[in-house]
Amino acid sequence: xxxxxxxxxxxxxxxxxxxxxxxxxxxxxxxxxxxxxxxxxxxxxxxxxxxxxxxxxxxxxxxxxxxxxxxxxxxxxxxxxxxxxxxxxxxxxxxxxxxxxxxxxxxxxxxxxxxxxxxxxxxxxxxxxxxxxxxxxxxxxxxxxxxxxxxxxxxxxxxxxxxxxxxxxxxxxxxxxxxxxxxxxxxxxxxxxxxxxxxxxxxxxxxxxxxxxxxxxxxxxxxxxxxxxxxxxxxxxxxxxxxxxxxxxxxxxxxxxxxxxxxxxxxxxxxxxxxxxxxxxxxxxxxxxxxxxxxxxxxxxxxxxxxxxxxxxxxxxxxxxxxxxxxxxxxxxxxxxxxxxxxxxxxxxxxxxxxxxxxxxxxxxxxxxxxxxxxxxxxxxxxxxxxxxxxxxxxxxxxxxxxxxxxxxxxxxxxxxxxxxxxxxxxxxxxxxxxxxxxxxxxxxxxxxxx
Length: 451
Hints:
The chain is an alpha+beta fold. It is built from 13 helices and eleven strands. GO terms for molecular function: peptidyl-prolyl cis-trans isomerase activity.
């Protein structure tokens, strides 16, 4: 076998390989000899089929299998000997002319092909013991607990009917009947009876609730709205519509007494138990926010300390995924690049930078995990599947079966678990310093802090 490296440019490598016909023929004969003791043919006793007859029957298919196997094993040998870590699947270029292919399979010509790959560059890992990481920590105050419970109370408060002739205000609930039309024609799903609409809840089409301000029971109004471009129904998305709307009842919200009875209505023994539950939930939420901030800072530090050229194909693949998502989002929202105070070219440049960062960080995390034998266990994957199933009550078996039969979905579960384990490994080595912060600072966006 001869191997010539014909290209070594950046992260691109290309090799030209030649395998002698005699080597291929020897392997084909060995496979046919093995087949001889297994195949059953009419007129021949097991193991007594003449080699020539077997070759006539199976020679071409066995030769094709042998060539495939030779290419795989040869490529593996080449990459292993040169210590190349592949970023992409090898691109193999074989002879295409029918006579050339036939000569190779019949043992009359050497196998000659080229293999092109893109490789991962060597990554020199930083000394993680030199990392200094600030860990923002916020305490849950009694005021935070009270505020949390009040939000629950507001979401569960009752309404009482207003006096005759009263006008609807923001926050009131209006019981309405409506008939919707587009260009004067009624459309499916455009009518409703005894529908409660809370003004300011933003649960109806934009503009619908606002136009109910000042309406009284028994009054009829024509509300003019436009369906959002990302509306669930394609036939209605972006269309202007009119709703002839009649109010039958105006109700105002009643403040909910936050006491033991309220706690019992939520399935808890007392107000104290409700406060305990609220505090536990907030502690978990604050811890999650702290974790995200620490992880973000750590990834920034990894980005700063690991500068290398990322494989262009991986960056391009990541960019395309991101850009397709951006285009779909903009199309559904009806926004343009001008609305975002940028241009398509500038946005593409920015997202290519983000794609490059993501690929480099992914390679760095993978290198850290590989060198320190960090892996995700089957038990950890199973727990992740169980958690996902629990989040969809009534569909647990469906979720479990989906992941069990979908390796790609399992891989998507594995990736964040692996990333978190690598992050934890680095944090064990780094110097982590806690810093007390307010709840507002804990949740403040990094861009806001920099402004």
